[in-house]
Amino acid sequence: MRFLRIAKFDFENILRNPTLLFSNTVMPLILIGLMGFVTQSFFGSGNMSSYDYYGVSMITLSALLIIMTATNAFMEERVKRANIRMIYAPIPKAEIYLSKILSTYILGTLSFSIILMIGQYLFHINYGGGNLPYILLLVNMLVLFGSCFGTMMCCVMGDEEKASSISQLPVLFFSAFGGIFFSVYGLGKTVAAISNLSPVKWILECAFRIIYDNDFALLLPVTFSLFGASIACVIVCQLTFKPEDFTC
After folding, report:
1. Which residue of 20, 101, 144, 232 has the smallest Cβ count within 10 Å?
2. Is the CB of residue 241 less than 8 Å from the CB of residue 157?
3. Residue 49, Cβ neighbours under 10 Å: how many?
4. Number of alpha carbons in the 13 Å side-chain half-sphere of residue 155
C-alpha cells in the first residue's frame, strides 16, 4: 500500500504538468496529421496511405519519447523537493525509482491506447482492425521500455538535464535509422544494414506485418526483447541509484 501511495503521488505530479500531458496526448495526433498531410502525394493509391504509415511511425516515436516524461517524473525540481522525506523514511530505495517507472508507464499506456483507438475508429487509420490489441501490446511494451530507460538514465546520471540530453541521442539514432520519418531502404545497402541495429526498425516491421500481412512471427521476439531490455534497465537502476542524488 505504501508503494502504491508513492506511485499515486508521482502520477498526480505528472498530471499537474501540462507539457507532459500535451506531449503524451495531443502531440502524437498532431504529428500524425501533419506528416500524413505533407506526404500524402508520395503514397499514391496503394493499400497504405500516408496517414496509415505515420499513424504507426509517429505513435512509435511518441511512445519512445516517454523517456523524457520518465526523466521529468523522476528528477524534476518540484518532485525532488517534495520527496526529500523519502530518503529518511525506512523504505527500500527500489520503491522510489519503481514508483516513477510505474506512474510513467500508467500515463503512457493509457494515453497511447486511447490514441490508437481514436485513430482507428474515429480517423480510420489502419491499425489492423481486429488485430488492434496486438498493436496495443507492442506499443505498451515500448512504453514500458521507455519508462525504464528514462528512469535508468536518471539513476546513472543523477541529474535530470544530463539524463534528458543524453537520452535524446539514442532516440534520434534509432528513429533516423529505424524508418520513423521515411523508408531507409532507398538510401543504399549500408544504411539499410545500419537500420537493422535500430529496435525501432523491428517494431515498425512487426507492426506493419501484423496490420497488412496478418503475420505475427516478430511479435513475441520483439515484445520479449523489449521486456528483457526493461528488466535490464531496472537492474541498472538498483545498482546505480543513490537516494541522495534524488534530492540534491
Report:
1. 232
2. no
3. 18
4. 23
What is the pTM for the complete model shown? 0.90
What range defines the domain where residue 68 resides? Answer: 2-247
Q: Using CA atoms, how far apart are residues 142 and 148, in angstroms rounded to an integer?
A: 10
pLDDT block averages, 10 residues each, the chain of length 248: 78 87 93 91 80 93 91 70 59 83 95 95 93 96 95 83 80 79 66 76 93 95 95 94 66
DSSP state of 40: G
Residue type present at position 143: V
| Cα(16)–Cα(128) distance, integer angstroms | 34
Report the interhelical angle of 50-64 vs 160-178 (nearest 10°).
150
Euclidean distance between CA atoms 74 and 190, whole angstroms? 38
Summarize pLDDT for 25-44 with one digit per residue, the tens.
999 999 999 999 998 888 76
| pLDDT score, position 186 | 59
- Residue 117 CA to residue 114 CA, distance in Å, equals 5
Number of folded domains that form the chain: 1
3-state secondary structure of 180: coil
d(CA 133, CA 141): 12
The residue whose grid cell reads 509517429 is 58
* Cβ-Cβ contacts under 8 Å for 53 (sequence gap 6 or more): 36, 39, 43
Other Cβ atoms closer than 10 A to 248: 11
Task: List b or e across 111-143, with b for residues whose CB sees 16 or more CB atoms inside 10 angstroms.
Answer: bbbebbeebbeeeebbbbeebbebbbebbbbbb
Type of residue numbered 230: S
Q: CB-hemisphere CA count at 13 Å for 122?
A: 7
Tell me how long the chain is. 248
How far is residue 53's CA from residue 56's CA, in Å, rounded to a whole number?
A: 6
